[in-house]
Amino acid sequence: MARNFRVHAKETGDQSLALQLFGDFDASSACELINLLDETLKPSGKVAINTDGLKTINAFGLDVFIPRMSRLNSTLADIEVTGRFSGVFREE
Question: Which of 14, 60, 76, 81 has the most other CB atoms within 10 Å of its CB?
Fold first, then answer.
């Protein structure tokens, strides 16, 4: 895992969660974020992931995270990525 990767999580309602990402996003960071989502997501929940705190994003980290996020988004929850790096987290 990137040494400086952190996730700040805050519940914003019954079914809502706000995540703020900090540091460098690599494959290990992607796995950490996936595990957090697996543990905290509720059916029909909403998750907002803010990328403003990220410094760098590794392409392999995106390759690990985006397919999993897409599956969660289509089956379990509504996941929205916001912030200055939101575009790179979109599946093309």
Answer: 81
Exposed e or buried b for every residue in 51-64, given b needs 16+ CB within 10 A? bebbeebbeebbeb
Q: Which residues, 6+ apart, have CB-to-CB distance to 45 below 8 Å?
A: 15, 16, 17, 76, 77, 78
Both tokens assigned to 24? 């460098």
Is 84 in contact with 50 (CB distance < 8 Å)?
no
Residues whose CB falls within 8 Å of the CB of residue 21, separated by 6 or more in sequence, listed in order: 5, 6, 7, 33, 49, 50, 51, 53, 54
Write the pLDDT tens digit of every residue in 54-64: 999 999 999 99
